[in-house]
Write a structure and sequence with these properties.
30% helix, binds iron/sulfur cluster, globular, ABC_transp_ATP-bind, nucleotide-binding, alpha/beta, transport, eight-stranded mixed sheet, 322 residues, 10 helices
C-alpha cells in the first residue's frame, strides 16, 4: 500500500512589504496562505494556477529554499520545518528541485561535468574518478552522452539544458523532486520529450514528483492527482480524471473551460472571469475568489471556506459544497 512521503500542513509564506524612509514593514504579501496536502510515494502531484498564485513559492517553501512563515512539512514522517540548516542540507540529498529556466539555473562558466559533480561532492563523493563515472552515467540516463560532460551550458539547446538540470537533480538518488515549471520555457515539440523522460525516470527510480505548472494540458498529461491554487490558497485537489471530468470549484471550472480543444467546432460552455486577479497583498475577505466568482453568495464575502472533502479523495474550498 502507498504511504505518504510528504505531508504539508497549514503552510504559509508571507513576504514583508517595506516602505517609508527607513524601510519599515507596511504590509505583507500572502504568497502562500494556509495550504495543506499530502503526497504519496511514487505519485506525481500536479499543482496548477495562474502566475502569482503561490505555486512556486509553495514548492520552494517545502524545500526550505525560502523559509516558511508558518506550518509544518513532514518528509518521510520527519518534521523538517524544525531542522537546523546543516540537518536540512543533509536531507536535501533526498529532496531536489528542477527549475523552470534551464539556462538561468546552470552556471554558464562551469562545464556540465562540474555542474553535475557539485552535488555529488557536497554529499561526500570525494573521488574525482567516481564523480566522473557518475556524471557519464547520469548523462546517459537523461538521453545525453558522456562526452557532453566537457561542454558548457550555452553549447546545448533548451531541451538538452533541461536534461542537464534533471541529471543534476538526480545525482544523489533523491526520493522527492519538485519540478518548478520544468517545461514552460521550452518549445512545445520539446516539452513532450522532456515530459516523457520525466515519466520514464519516475518509473525507473521510483521517484515522487510535485509538478508545478500553469499549463493545464501539461499537468493533465503527467499527474496522478492535481491541486489548483488561487491567490495563495489551494482551492481544489483530486485525482486527475475527477478534476477534468467533474471540476467542483468555480475557479477550476473557469480554468478548464478556457483550455483549447482540438476540435474548434466542439460545443463548450466558456466561463469568462471578469476583472483582474486581486493582489495577494490585499486579498479579498472570505473566499478570495468571491470578487470574480459567477456563483458568489453573501456568505462568500464574510467567511473563508474550509478546504474539505466533498467526495472520496476530492477536496474543495467552496461554500457551494457545505
Ligand atoms: Fe464562489 Fe463562494 Fe465558492 Fe468562493 S466560496 S468559489 S465565492 S461560491
Amino acid at each position: 500500500m502507498q504511504k505518504p512521503i510528504l505531508e504539508v500542513d497549514g503552510l504559509k509564506k508571507y513576504f514583508d512589504i517595506k516602505g517609508g524612509p527607513i524601510g519599515r514593514k507596511v504590509g505583507e504579501v500572502k504568497a502562500v496562505d494556509d495550504v495543506s496536502f499530502t503526497v504519496m510515494e511514487g505519485e506525481i502531484l500536479g499543482i496548477v494556477g495562474e502566475s502569482g498564485c503561490g505555486k512556486s513559492t509553495t514548492g520552494k517553501s517545502i524545500l526550505r529554499l525560502i523559509e516558511p512563515t508558518e506550518g509544518k512539512v513532514k518528509f518521510q514522517d520527519q518534521d523538517i520545518t524544525s531542522l537546523t540548516n546543516s540537518e536540512m542540507r543533509r536531507l536535501r540529498k533526498d529532496m531536489q528541485i528542477i527549475f523552470q529556466d534551464p539556462y538561468a539555473s546552470l552556471n554558464p562558466r562551469h562545464t556540465v561535468e562540474k555542474i553535475i559533480s557539485e552535488p555529488l561532492l557536497v554529499h561526500g563523493m570525494t573521488s574525482a574518478k567516481q564523480r566522473l563515472d557518475r556524471v557519464g552515467e547520469l548523462l546517459e540516463v537523461v538521453g545525453l552522452s558522456p562526452y557532453h560532460a566537457k561542454r558548457y551550458p550555452h553549447q546545448f539547446s533548451g531541451g538538452q539544458r533541461q536534461r542537464v538540470g534533471i541529471a543534476r537533480a538526480l545525482a544523489n538518488n533523491p526520493k522527492l523532486v519538485i519540478c518548478d515549471e520544468p517545461v514552460s520555457a521550452l518549445d512545445v515539440s520539446i516539452q513532450s520529450q522532456i515530459l516523457n523522460l520525466m515519466e520514464k525516470l519516475r518509473d525507473e527510480f521510483n521517484l515522487t514528483y510535485i509538478f508545478i505548472a500553469h499549463d493545464l494540458s501539461v499537468v493533465k498529461h503527467i499527474s496522478d492527482r492535481i491541486g489548483v491554487m488561487y491567490l495563495g490558497r489551494m482551492v481544489e485537489l483530486t485525482e486527475k480524471n475527477k478534476l477534468y471530468d467533474n471540476p467542483k470549484h468555480p475557479y477550476t471550472q473557469a480554468l478548464l473551460s478556457a483550455v483549447p480543444l482540438p476540435d474548434p467546432d466542439m460545443p463548450r460552455n466558456r466561463v469568462i472571469l471578469k476583472g483582474d486577479v486581486p493582489s495577494p497583498a490585499n486579498p479579498p475577505s472570505g473566499c478570495a475568489f468571491h470578487t470574480k466568482c459567477p456563483q458568489a453568495m453573501d456568505i462568500c464575502k464574510e467567511v473563508r471556506p474550509a478546504f474539505q472533502p466533498v467526495e472520496d479523495n476530492h477536496f474543495v474550498a467552496c461554500h457551494l459544497y457545505k
